[in-house]
Amino acid sequence: MTTEHTLTRYGVRNYPPRQDSVPAARRWAAWLAVAWGEPRVASDVALLTSELVTNALLHGAVRDRYIRVEVQLDGAVLRIAVTDPKGERWPEPRAVSDEEQYGRGLAVVEAVAQRWGASQRVVGKTVWAECALPGPV
Asked: What is the pLDDT of residues 24-83, one digit of tens each?
């Protein structure tokens, strides 16, 4: 089976600033990857979405303001973008000790994503990660 990477596909959902939004967004993004014919990256998409949404909840959530999750397939790249309403805290990987429970999310994103970054918005920020799609089987 060969997969053509030419069509642009796009999905967007808004999630409330609650912990149950993490698994909901993760399942939805992985489902899109499979529905769009890219099942080989679905687990990476799920992991990246989980980390980005978790970070948005921990560092960018504002009561009664939604977090936006966008997934886009464009050419040979699948991009996950998470927008939160707070722009004051910029995403930055940090060193953590073995004893610390939190703080590894962006290290996971760096390890899994082909590339990642962030952009300032008028209100808030968007943190994104990209997965390179595998070639034809």
From this structure: 999 999 999 999 999 999 999 999 999 999 999 998 888 889 999 999 999 899 999 999
Q: What angle do CA 50, 85, 78 make, to 5 degrees?
A: 40
- CATH dotted code for 9-132: 3.30.565.10
CA distance 82 to 126: 5
Cα–Cα distance for residue pair 42/134, rounded to 1 Å? 12
- Alpha carbons 109 and 93: distance in angstroms, whole number: 9
Q: Where are the domains of the chain?
A: 9-132
| pTM, full prediction | 0.87
